[in-house]
Amino acid sequence: MPGSGASGRAAAPVQQRRREQRPQRARRPAAAPGDAADAAAAAAPARAASPEQTEEARFHEAYAKASGAAPPFPRSPHAARTGAGYSGPAAYTVSQLYNVNRPPPVPLSEYEQRRKRRDLEDILAAAKKAGKSQDDVRAGVDQLEKLLPDVVNLNRMRASDWVQLAIDVNGVAAKLILLKTLYPSADAFSMVTARPKTLLQSEEAIREDAAAVKKLLTGAKDVCAIVEAVPELIDATQLTRSLAWLRSAFPTLDAVELLQENPLILRNIGESNAEDSAEYGEMTTKD
Hints:
By secondary structure, this protein is an all-alpha fold. The chain has helices at residues 2-21, 33-43, 51-67, 77-82, 94-97, 108-129, 134-147, 159-166, 169-182, 188-194, 203-216, 223-229, 236-249, 255-261, 265-269. The chain is 59% helix and 0% strand. Residues 1-57, 65-84 are annotated as: Disordered.
């Protein structure tokens, strides 16, 4: 309609004047993401840090003072104010994550010393349980270490068995001499270190086993080399089982010759499990 177009054009200047008369609001410049986060953290009420977070913060600060380096993780304003720990950006350099001034690792010798102390404690506890003098057992263990360095090990024999050897060190020395007599070219010390249960047998039982072993290995060129390589075969019963297994596994070969050429064949194939574990072994204190 003609009238509607004129009225619309007349209303436009009025609306323009009203917008010009309105007060203009000042706009703040856009803040950077990091500034906005810091401002929000500053405006937020301070929250008490948990004991775990406070302890972590103290640890990092003490470590930084001891090493002379800056803390590996920067702290945000909120964390600095509340002691809530370190919370910086997610990307760090290798030198920040792995401080070059870290404490040195524990040497292997220290682990060995710790193992020996634990073993001695278990042996003394077994001595007390058996009604033996702990002082005598401790002195006997020291003598065993001098006679056979590093032989005392609970991974090889039970604590109660070590108690028996510790109270009869003279008997241990006599059995070492006997083994050297029965197997002249073999290293008796290494044999006993690898298989200390031999020392639990009586001298008569050791002689009988040696006679049976030499009879079973009649065709062998060097019996001493075989028993030195595999000390478990000093037990006649175990040697009988091992020879039977070799004959069944290699029916076309001579078991004794095969064992002489490669004494470790039983261990390599997994059949030298002559000895059970120290905890559940078949060997007992009885002969």
